[in-house]
Design goal:
Keywords: Disulfide bond, FAD, Flavoprotein, NAD, NADP, Nucleotide-binding, Oxidoreductase, Redox-active center. The chain is of the alpha/beta class. The protein contains 14 helices and 22 strands. It folds into 3 domains: 215 residues, 3-Layer(bba) Sandwich (FAD/NAD(P)-binding domain); 113 residues, FAD/NAD(P)-binding domain; 114 residues, FAD/NAD-linked reductase, C-terminal dimerisation domain (Enolase-like, domain 1, 2-Layer Sandwich). Helices cover 31% and strands 24% of the residues. The structure holds flavin-adenine dinucleotide (FAD).
Length: 458
């Protein structure tokens, strides 16, 4: 056994751990960075990067099939080479991981340990035969796909976001359990690759945290591409049926028979095998590490960043956690989680960009509000691109003129949302947006127009 003392230990090389190692080592501290699997964690290996690479392939296939709409002729039918799609996706992920590994290897005073880390006490962590101690310990252990305890789930071979990445055949019929962000991205991309796709969601609508009209618009986008969607599906169970899998559910007259089943019903934090009890670190009833506004856990000297603390479920929230911890520790800058404004995207095509409050949340808050909305059919850039599904909406406080939230479901919605998000960070009133001159022709160009035409939220 080797015992070694560092200034800091970081468990998990996800989205917060490596940049924090960079800052701490640059400040002269010795750091042990521990990773049990692949450097880069979920985002780089089984999450954002590979899925967005596949979304790009799916978009290319979709556009090629629509070539005639644009007056473009193809000499034959559109083919999809799933092996090539996977190879491209693998290269995107592998290159990013390689770059990250080189960056870590080049950090003075940083030692990368490969293995599973577990607390032995509040300042000691075991990795294999190594016993590492530090006064400061940072947790960045992320999460994994939840496996629901549904009848028959143990009898079938199911896929999760992680095993989807190794799949080397195109499913004949992919049955997706769950109708939220991760599931819908997979559903649309595999439909575009040529699989038959069925989505089974237990709630009465897709992505239930969005406004009802956003859910409805996304449903129609998917149904327009011949994706079968079952909503309000209770009592889901699985059974093997020859080489296929039968998925039975209450809303279905007949079971969905899939060649493959993807479970995408939520995420579970990687905190159950960390020995947190040995350190005395508190977790909530779902297993998330309890942290304060500056990401300190219940034990002095231990911080938690990223998906494992339940304060966010995105790469940008994990990276922002790193920035908050580094600012507090190294820059005498008391940044807080509560400084940030909720923002994220759904990478279907067209994508949904979101920031701040939904209309439902604004109504629930009881404040007097203004709302402006425009369908993509009345957005020049969307018409020119032939991509007119979706709409955008802005909400503002009628008394203070504060911008409360925005949804952009349409081409470039994931990018356009940032012009509203940054105004919200600047605490600029809605009149700033209304008076801004945006570039023509763009989807964002219409945001000032919407801001000029706000009406009371009835
Ligand atoms: C399919 C999919 C698509 C997604 N798309 C997006 C997107 O487009 N945009 C977005 O913002 N977010 C997206 N996300 C979410 C995003 O990937 C995560 O929020 C983000 O990766 C979380 O980062 P993290 O730093 O908290 O942890 P992770 O990236 O999960 O990293 C945690 C690391 O800790 C390691 N680890 C865990 N336990 C231990 C231990 N005991 N010892 C040693 N190492 C350990 C793990 O192996 C892992 O490498 C997506 C997620 C999925 C699943």
């Amino acid at each position: 056994m080797t015992a070694k003392t560092f200034d800091a230990i970081i468990i998990g090389a996800g989205q917060a751990g490596p940049p924090l190692a960079g800052r701490l080592t640059a400040a002269g501290m010795s750091v042990a960075l521990i990773e049990r699997k692949l450097v880069g964690g979920t985002c780089v290996n089984t999450g954002c990067m590979p899925t967005k690479a596949m979304v790009a392939s799916a978009y290319a296939a979709h556009l090629a099939r629509r070539a005639a709409d644009y007056g473009v002729t193809l000499s034959g039918p559109v083919g999809v080479d799933y092996t090539a799609i996977k190879a491209r996706k693998d290269k995107v992920s592998n290159d990013a991981r390689g770059n990250l590994e080189s960056w870590i290897a080049g950090m003075d005073r940083c030692t990368l340990y490969r293995g599973h880390a577990r607390f032995e006490s509040a300042n000691t962590v075991r990795v294999g035969d190594d016993l590492l101690s530090a006064e400061k310990i940072f947790l960045n252990t992320g999460g994994r796909a939840s496996v629901p305890d549904l009848p028959g789930v143990d009898d079938i071979s199911f896929l999760t976001n992680a095993s989807m990445m190794d799949l080397d055949v195109l499913p004949r019929h992919l049955v997706v359990i769950g109708g939220s962000y991760i599931s819908l991205e997979f559903a649309q991309m595999f439909r575009r690759f040529g699989s038959q796709v069925t989505v089974i969601e237990k709630s009465p609508r897709l992505i239930g945290r969005e406004d009802e009209d956003v859910s409805a618009a996304i449903l129609s986008i998917l149904v327009n591409e011949d994706i079968t969607v079952h909503l309000g599906a209770g009592d889901i169970s699985f059974a093997r049926k020859g080489n296929d899998i039968a998925v039975t559910f209450s809303a279905g007259k007949a079971p969905a028979i899939g060649s493959h089943v993807l479970l995408a019903v939520g995420r579970t934090p990687n905190t159950d095998d960390l020995g947190l009890d040995k350190a005395g670190v508190e977790v909530d009833k779902r297993g998330f590490i309890v942290v304060d506004d500056q990401l300190r856990t219940s034990v002095p000297g231990i911080w938690a960043m990223g998906d494992c603390n339940g304060k966010g479920a995105f790469t940008h929230t994990s990276y922002n956690d790193y920035e908050i911890v580094a600012a507090n520790l190294l820059d005498n800058d008391p940044r807080r989680v509560s400084d940030r404004i909720e923002a994220y995207a759904l990478y279907t095509d067209p994508p949904l960009g979101r920031c701040g409050m939904t209309e439902a949340a604004v109504r629930k808050s009881g404040r007097r509000a203004l709302v402006g909305q425009r369908p993509m059919t009345r957005v020049g850039r969307a018409v020119e691109k032939g991509e007119t599904q979706g709409f955008m909406r802005i909400l503002a406080d009628a008394d203070t003129n504060e911008i409360l939230g925005c949804s952009v479901l349409g081409p470039g919605g994931d990018e356009a949302i940032h012009c509203v998000l940054d105004l919200m960070y600047a605490k600029a009133p809605i009149s700033t947006l209304a008076r801004a001159m945006h570039i023509h022709p763009n989807v964002s160009e219409l945001l000032p127009t919407i801001a000029q035409e706000l009406k009371p939220l009835a």
